[in-house]
Amino acid sequence: MLKFVIDEDMPRSTAGTLKAKGFEALDVRDCGLRGQSDEEVFKFAQREKAIILTGDMGFANLLRYPIGSHVGIVIAHFPNEISTSELTGQIIKAFINLTETDFSGNLIILEPGRIRIRRKSV
Prior knowledge:
122 residues, alpha/beta, six-stranded mixed beta sheet
């Protein structure tokens, strides 16, 4: 089962929605990480063997977070005007079409109607 660490820039309901769809999910706000740096969130996710789900494009920095050096990073890059329910719906729709291999060590960027995956070298 895939496990996610939800960054604090995501809607509060995201973890609950993922859990309802059969995923494991930890919200950083429930883990004592509110206001912590990206590096602290990253370290926590690696200790938990979890994929980071965030809206923070800073996690797309391949020099700081090289492909294959982490469990996985998913960036939900959507307009600020999108509703919470639409955002979580788009995330769930994308996750249903992805396999564990798609997540493993890779960077996934979700955008309206589009999924981009930067894969680790094999």
